[in-house]
Amino acid sequence: MNKQSMWSLRFSTASLVLIPVAVGINYIGKFVAGILKLPLWLDSIGTVLAAMLGGPIVGALAGAINNIIYGFTDPISFVYAITSVAIGVAAGVLFYKGYISSWGKAVVAGIIIGLVATVISTPLNIGFWGGQTGNVWGDALFAFVLANTESTWLASLLDEIFVDVPDKLLVVLVSYGIFQGLPRNVVQLYNNNDKVETLD
Questions:
Q1: What residues have CB less than 8 Å from 12, skipping those under 6 apart?
Q2: Element at 84 (helix H, strand E)
Q3: Is 42 contained in some domain?
Q4: Is 93 a domain residue?
Q5: Within a domain: residue 108?
């Protein structure tokens, strides 16, 4: 990412190609999580990686397009595109600020991104699912908290934190690992000023 223009709406060819690749990575992550029956989603690895390479806007676009595609088979995904956009923006900004530059910092960034996703998703969960996330472990916590406090908001918030923070922590660590494994000449493609498309 060209750090002098983090919010630029002008994209290099490499950034434009990155978006569909990121969507594909998101799909693979979600598929693997489903096959292994993990209590996590792992469907934003590509979003975070795109944000690290191309900046927050590229990350946000990857996240939004990802949910739009899912939305054709699961319409509720359209709504959660808001969360995916926020994840892409947060990841891009944190990377720009140097918060995803070591494994230790990546852990902190993962927790922050998980909390960002929690704040946005919790009201959506309450509006569409009565506060639940659809995750077996998280919803068990939801039921326990609701039974003991009768607070849907608290139960939903803790449900989302219980699932989203570990999920985004693992997502950021995997994304950082992929980033570290990329050839330097590939990373360098996103540090040039050869912009060929614009949304200005």
A1: 189, 190, 192, 194, 195, 196, 197
A2: helix 81-96
A3: yes
A4: yes
A5: yes
